[in-house]
Design a protein that fits this description.
The complex is a heterodimer of chains A (about 425) and B (about 325). Chain A is α/β, with parallel strands linked by helices and about 425 residues long. Chain A contains 16 helices and six strands. In chain A, about 65% of the residues lie in helices and about 5% in strands. In chain A, the strands form two sheets. In chain A, strands 2-1-3-4 form a four-stranded mixed sheet, with helices on one face. Chain A has a two-stranded antiparallel ribbon with strand order 5-6. Chain A is elongated. Chain B has two domains: about 220 residues, Rossmann fold (3-Layer(aba) Sandwich); about 60 residues, Alpha-Beta Plaits, CATH 3.30.70.260. Classes of the chains: A alpha/beta (about 425), B alpha/beta (about 325).
Chain lengths: ~425, ~325
């Protein structure tokens, strides 16, 4: 009996893995994934061209206030506005900043001339420098020093710490947790739909090809259905493993070539710039990543991924069995996709309060738990909740598989019958 | 005589429809058995029960004197009326898959597929996808998939549909060759000329119940109605023949054709001698009803629309 399921699994697996679309998707996936990370980093590394800005200062207050950096070079010109404008038009400079006489009691209005719109970076840099200088002048006028001002600036930091049942403290990092949660939840949602519909299309193909009666004279319908579901699941896992593997290899290769590393790797040498970056942003992210319980997240992901797929795949198979040639299966598809869609829409709400009542119940209900629980897990979920939710999910997919099998065995032999919910219920109850 | 299949008192009911009622049948080994009946009579349901695709509510089915069980599937070949193949799969791989589903080892399957490829001279199709085959070619592949595991019992539901006359003859010869090798064949068809030509035994099912069963020859004999046809080379006056005339007409080439109904106790020799005193007899025969006539006679007895059967195509 198992031998026959195994044969079905093999066929379902091989026919899909050998398809061109599978090969393309599997190879392009990691490329896209790596490109998504690498291109912005590469652009940031490369930096924009240096802009030359001439400054005409009527006020005489800012003679040394502007410091040139890699993005902007400031040049003070002692020319009339007309001459300065000519320089700009002749292309020597990219921009012209005109500082009028400044009255400390009034709002200061600057004029920036350029052929193209200046970038946000330049505008904010100019505004900052001018504002600081004016503030300094005002302080001076009031008889106060800049140093004194700095001493009265309040400093408040907040560190969020989770205390688990053992009394251990772990720093929580809501931002990193939500990114991981979102990523996992969307992946599960995406895979369930992508491969659930593949199961459905497989069933429709067998039914409309009329091969199904030939097959089920050798194999029980249940074996055929389970073989198909498991076969497609193996395809998903294959694709996923290749994606992860190729992404790692690709990011290492690209890293070796460009010196840009997607993940902090202690073995890899860092250039000075990277070190400078690491000095600021990286420790926080690394610390946040290090604080994540990746074992729990990883195990949960695999479980909810497979459990969620099994929960829905059998139902997709049943829907496929109701289809008659180009029949209307939307009537069953819409209610079937509602819970997952609802789960995805609720993610923002869950994020507000990942441990609230709503989040709790949504992560227990097996139709939504694969998506919702994966959003919650990075925030730390008590073990009993995780186990309870997994038990419900296992019970859930056992039930849907049983229910779907009862519809499937009748549906695949039905041709020309108009199927509605009443008919489905009749099939479920029908003796075999 | 040993029986291949013995069906006793089988009942099957779908939600709102009785598909089989106390049906009993016996299919003798090594014969071709015609399963006849109008659409919706219950033939497909019976065939599906024998193939263990669905199960009877009550009654017993014995295969080789053994109660029907899952491993009998290996010894049955089934060509459904609604049949097809995976369009995107190559012919060779497809046959291998179907053979292995029947329980053949990979080696046996490859060997047997090769024998059939040689027999039909289609070895070069092996790497073709089914969608690239013509309908007739695909039907040949389908037939091979039904018989390649050398079943001892073959169930063919409308096997000739989709075949051109040349290929239909090829398949007919294969069916006869399989029968001669000892295979039992159950043939379900509406093509009465195939029944006349091939079947040794028949059963007629109508409205979920068996109406007729037996050797084709015996059934025909039972249905003859004491009718005789006489042809003379010139027109005669039938009124002076002292038997009941049912029909008479002049043939194109001048012969005169008459059909008489003899009553109980009347002798066909008396009819013949009465006629040849009038003219020259060129043809004389007792009219044996065709299977088609017997079918129509039984099925149209109680007229009614064929109920649309659940689990039926």
């Amino acid at each position: 009996m198992m031998e026959k399921i195994w044969l079905v699994i093999q066929r379902e697996y091989m026919t899909r893995v050998r398809k061109k679309s599978f090969v393309v998707m599997t190879l392009l996936g990691p490329l896209l994934f790596v490109a998504m990370w690498a291109v912005p980093i590469w652009l940031a590394e490369k930096g924009p061209e240096t802009k030359k800005v001439e400054v005409v200062d009527y006020s005489g207050l800012f003679s040394d206030a502007f410091e040139s950096n890699s993005e902007v070079e400031f040049h003070y010109v002692d020319e009339s506005l007309e001459d300065a404008k000519e320089y700009l038009e002749s292309g020597i400079y990219d921009g012209l900043l005109l500082i009028p006489n400044v009255d400390l009691k009034e709002k200061t209005n600057l004029v920036y001339f350029s052929e193209a719109n200046p970038g946000m970076a330049i505008k904010s840099e100019i505004r900052k420098v001018i504002a600081e200088k004016i503030q300094e002048e005002k302080l001076k006028a009031a008889g106060l020093s800049k140093e004194w001002l700095n001493t009265i600036k309040p400093e408040v930091g907040i560190r969020t710490v989770n205390i688990n049942e053992n009394g251990d403290e772990a720093e929580s990092h809501a931002e990193v947790a939500s990114v991981i949660g979102y990523l996992a939840a969307f992946l599960i949602y995406f895979f369930i739909f992508l491969y659930g519909t593949q199961v459905m299309r497989g069933v429709i193909e067998e039914k409309s090809n009329r091969i199904v009666e030939v097959i089920i004279s050798s194999v029980r319908p249940f074996q055929l259905m389970v073989g198909k579901i498991v076969g497609v699941a193996s395809v998903v896992l294959t694709q996923f493993i290749i994606w992860v593997g190729l992404s790692l290899v690709l990011s290492l290769v690209i890293g070796a070539i460009t010196g840009v590393y997607l993940s902090p790797s202690p073995a890899a040498p860092m250039d000075p710039q990277m070190e400078a970056m690491a000095a600021e942003g990286l420790p926080k992210i690394t610390a946040a990543l290090a604080s994540m319980d990746f074992v729990t997240i990883g195990v949960s992901f695999v479980f909810y991924f497979l459990g969620g797929y099994l929960m829905y795949a059998a139902l997709f198979a049943a829907v496929g069995a109701t289809v008659d040639q180009d029949g209307d299966y939307q009537q069953f598809m819409i209610p079937l996709s509602m819970p997952l869609l609802f789960a995805i829409i609720s993610l923002a709400v869950i994020l507000q309060d990942p441990h609230g009542n709503f989040a709790f119940w949504m992560s227990m209900f097996p139709f939504t738990s694969p998506v919702i629980m994966m959003m919650r897990v990075p925030f730390g979920v008590p073990l009993w909740q995780l186990l309870l939710s997994m038990t419900f999910l296992a019970a859930g997919f056992t039930f849907t598989t049983w229910l779907a099998a009862r519809i499937y065995r009748i549906g695949i032999l039905m041709n020309g019958a108009k199927v509605n919910y009443r008919v489905l219920w009749k099939w479920v109850r029908m003796r075999y | 005589m040993i029986n291949q299949i013995e069906i006793e008192q089988v009942n099957k009911r779908f939600a709102d429809h009785q598909a089989l009622t106390d049906l009993s049948l016996t299919v003798p080994k090594g014969s071709i058995f015609g399963l006849l009946g109008p659409n919706g009579a219950g033939k497909s349901t019976l065939i599906r029960i024998i193939n263990q695709i669905i199960f009877a509510d009550s009654g017993t089915i014995r295969f080789n004197q053994q109660e029907l069980q899952p491993d009998h599937i290996r010894r049955i070949g089934y060509l459904p009326e609604e049949r097809g193949l995976y369009k995107k799969m190559k012919v060779g791989e497809q046959l291998l898959y179907l053979a292995r589903l029947k329980g053949l080892s990979k080696r046996d399957a490859i060997q047997k597929i090769r024998i059939w490829f040689d027999k039909f001279e289609i070895a070069d199709w092996s790497n073709k996808k089914v969608e690239d085959l013509s309908k007739g070619m695909a039907q040949k592949v389908q037939f091979i998939s039904t018989v390649m595991h050398e079943p001892e019992f073959l169930i063919l539901d409308e096997p000739f549909s989709g075949f051109d006359p040349v290929n239909a003859n090829l398949i007919r010869d294969e069916i006869l060759a399989l029968r001669d090798k000892g295979c039992t064949v159950m043939l379900s068809t509406h093509r009465m000329e195939s029944v006349e030509e091939l079947c040794d035994n028949i059963a007629l099912i109508n409205k979920s119940e068996k109406v007729l069963e037996g050797k084709k020859r015996d059934i025909k004999m039972d249905h003859k109605a004491n009718k005789y046809q006489i042809v003379t080379d010139a027109m005669i006056d039938p009124a002076i023949i002292p038997f009941e005339l049912i029909n008479s007409h002049q043939e194109d080439y001048g012969h005169f054709n008459m059909t008489f109904q003899l009553a109980e106790g009347e002798n066909s020799n008396d009819l013949l001698s009465a006629v040849f005193q009038q003219g020259h007899v060129v043809h004389f025969e007792e009219l044996i009803p065709s299977m088609s006539e017997i079918f129509i006679q039984h099925v149209s007895k109680v007229e009614g629309p064929a109920s649309s059967e659940i689990i039926s195509s």
